Amino acid sequence: MDILLVMLAGMAVGRWLFPARAKRVNERVALACTLTLIFAMGVMLGQKENFLQELFSLGIASFLLFLLPTLGSIVVVYLLSERFLVKRRRKKEDPS
Known about the structure:
mainly alpha; single chain; 2 domains
């Protein structure tokens, strides 16, 4: 929750308080910080001894976290569309 508050505060400062002429410099600083963060994360991961095994198990978990909600959403949308949309079409086609 704290992270969201800090992000919202940063967005508000950038939108209303940050001078427009400094935005280009800010973009470059933000890019440099992002690249430094990615590099540091890569160094930390590279130091782990069983990184590939952890990466494999993390990949499987991530895939399941993607697959299960996606399949659930597809099933729910299909069932709801069959229930509501098909009945409307039938009523429009059959005026009796």
